[in-house]
Amino acid sequence: MGIRASSTVIETVTSDLAKALAFYRTLGLDIPEGADGEPHVEVPLPGGGKLAFDTEATLRSFMPDWTPPTGSGRLALAFGFDSPAEVDAAYSAIVGAGHRSELKPFDTPWGQRYATVLDPDGNGVDLFAPLA
Length: 132
What we know:
The protein is α/β, with parallel strands linked by helices. It has helices at 17-26, 56-62, 84-96, and strands at 9-14, 40-44, 50-55, 76-80, 100-107, 112-118, 124-130.
């Protein structure tokens, strides 16, 4: 059956680690306050796996010619909640903290409360929950 990975890490590269970590703390990720000055941070995700953050300087330390991509990001993350009210509360907290909205909360035809916000680097972060 081939080689099978033993763990999952989703990694994002950020131009401002402190802002990125503050954004993801708003979503409830357990990120230690002292992590803001580190070159690489990994945090557990609900349900398993990890989300990792690297600064642009960290990437350049082993890929000197690396440049950040331009245009919209190609990575989207999705965070599930237990109720539509929690989606609305998370959306309000994130936008209230000064982060950008891409899609205000709405009820989808496929049975979810759904919204999209953008992290400080422009990555789409979907918020969803099943409708009652």
